[in-house]
Amino acid sequence: MRRSLAVFSLALVLAGCGSGGDKGSSSHSPGRGTIEALWRGSGESVGLVSGTSDYAAGQLRVSFLVVGRDARPVYRPRARVFVARSLGSKPFLRAEARLEPIGPAGANEAAAGNATGIYVARLTIARPGRYLLLAEPVGGTKRIGALGYLAVKRTSATPPVGARAYASRTPTVASAHGRLARITTATPPDRDLLRFSVAQSLAVHRPFVVVFATPKFCTSRTCGPVVDVVQAVSRRFRGRGIRFIHVEIYAGNDPARGFNQWVRQWHLPTEPWIFLVGADGRIKAKFEGSVSVAELAAAVRSRLT
Q: Stretch 229-256: mean pLDDT, rounded?
């Protein structure tokens, strides 16, 4: 993902509160039941790395890594999640995040930062604003807590669910005259994902899944092998009339040239992104960042079949 991913430590979270980096160094006692009190009572403070960032008020899919002081991701099956408006307020939302695998089973490919799993939570936040999120992975030999921010806007930068998909004339094997290295950085080339363009699929009213991603140049710690995931899911739905499409991110597959015309047309501020589009041409679901095979397959089954 071409964005700055912050690791939220105590020093960052409390920078505006005049507190240092040690939980015990605060000169005041946090209010009972506040998110600060929950965080201070959650054990060792660890880092939170966001895997998603484009949030609009309503239903949110939030993904994140929890990173220990040894700089390694924490892998526990689930994590408790608390959301509050400020350190001194009580959480208005409590939920659970589940650890989802990055990449298809047996692919042995992690995210760029060697992460093999990422936490995913489904939250509903009705109003725009900046919120605090506390994640407490459950289990293990010691209690840990990671604190981070959610910046929720009135509308998302990317096309919302329900909007019409852009009729993009994305590259195909035919348009590239078989020169696949020009239109994909996947190794080996993902030929099956390059048979149809977005515009062609919309014209014939076929449901499709389109992934905007760069297998070769993805560099953020939470950016996993999403093209491999889409390929794995496509095999599960073979013969069901659903098309699966891959679109690269950079002009000429060169990061120095910036995002290509299709990424700009879809108003994608980050990558990777996956959109599920129905036969009516409207977006039925979307995913930012890493997504598991199970998560994507469930969405395809419920939204496109």
A: 97
Cα distance between residue 164 and residue 66, in whole Å: 35
Residue 247 and residue 135 share a domain: no
In a domain, 168, yes or no: no
On whether both 116 and 18 belong to a single domain, the answer is: yes
Give the whole-angstrom CA distance, residue 263 versus residue 259. Answer: 6
Domain assignment of residue 289, given as a range: 180-304
**236 Cβ neighbours under 8 A, 6+ residues apart:** 297
- What is the mean pLDDT of the segment spanning 32-58? 95
Q: What is the mean pLDDT of residues 150-158?
A: 97
Q: What are 136's strand-pairing partners? A: 80
Spatial distance between the Cα atoms of 227 and 157, rounded to a whole number of angstroms:
22
Residue 177 tokens read as 């005259």
Which SS3 state, helix, strand or coil, does residue 218 take? coil
Residues 162-171: pLDDT tens digits? 999 999 999 9
Residues 69-120 pLDDT 10s: 999 999 999 999 999 999 999 999 999 999 999 989 866 566 666 789 999 9
Residues 147 and 192 grouped into a single domain: no
CATH at residue 78: 2.60.40.1930
- Domain membership flag for residue 264: yes
Q: What are residue 181's phi and psi, to 5 degrees? A: -65, -20
Residue of 305, 162, 154 lying closest to 240 (CA atoms): 305
What is the DSSP code string of 248-300? -SBGGG-GGG-B-HHHHHTT-SSS-EEEEE-TTSBEEEEEES---HHHHHHHH
Percent of the chain with pLDDT strictly greater than 70: 87
First to last CA, the chain: 30
**How far is residue 205 from each of residues 60, 99, 173, 245, 282, measured CA to CA in Å?**
28, 35, 21, 15, 10
Domain count of the fold of the chain:
2
